[in-house]
Amino acid sequence: MSAFETFHEAVRTFALGRIGAASRVMATVAGEHELYAHSARWLAEHAEGRLPGPYDDASAFAAYRTGVPSGRLRDAGSAALARLLIERRPARMLDVGAGDGVVLARAFAEGVTPAQLTLVEPSSDLLRRAATAVSDRVTAVRFNGTVQGFAERAPPLPPWDLVHASLSLQNLDTEERARVLPFLASRGLSLLLVEFDCLRPDGDALDADRIRWTHDRYLIGMDEHTGSPLGAEQEERAKQGFLMPMLFGGFLTGRSAPNYEQPIAAWIDELMAAGFTDVTERARVPHWWSDGVIVLASRPA
User: Fold this and answer.
1) Which CATH number is 66-198+261-298 given?
2) 3-state percent helix, strand, coil for the chain, nearest multiple of 5
């Protein structure tokens, strides 16, 4: 079998819950590319017990975000946010999925800082980091939970002048987006959205075309994340702690899947249907997975 055929077999074995067996299959091609070597090791280490998610380890997520390809998108996102802060000068801002706060801190340093900031982040560790990252400029209101939970509990305050969501809404399935996007449109005057223009083939998670598409992009991605500016230890953490859980999580179905990415055209259609009246693409950033796209959605006050 070719290396891809072996990868394909290992993925389907993994999806059946035979994780140890999947690791042994993957190990037969481990010497051909680090994608296979990292996959075999990650599967072996998690053959028993709960599989970790890509956001379980905040330090792994931070290491991934520091890598060169993610850094390009992060920098473009913070620059776009800084320009919008200068243009709009929002008094009240909501950040959905604030992560470690690096994008916000850089944007505030280059632009202007809103008087009121609310951070929504399900990871308590990342939420703490985000609040700390901006603490020299603004004391943030924190919500430790999902945006779905926040939408159910948000008090009836005046609308946010600006909502920011960077790669944080892709974990919502179709039904959840149909509830959350109208909430953001009704409570926010503008939304700066960063998402991938994901052109992955339609179909089941285990369709051969989807596995091939994902495989080919991860071959590139693993190479591009080699040579982390923070050194070999952080590179290892990014690959084992973030990229591997994201890779194999993508082969799960139903509520276990880590995200529900879609083409940017579908995002624009959903934003318009949610109540935003002006939706424009502001920037596009090449990325090994799919182009990262920065979209601005607005509505009249």
Assistant:
1) 3.40.50.150
2) 50, 15, 35
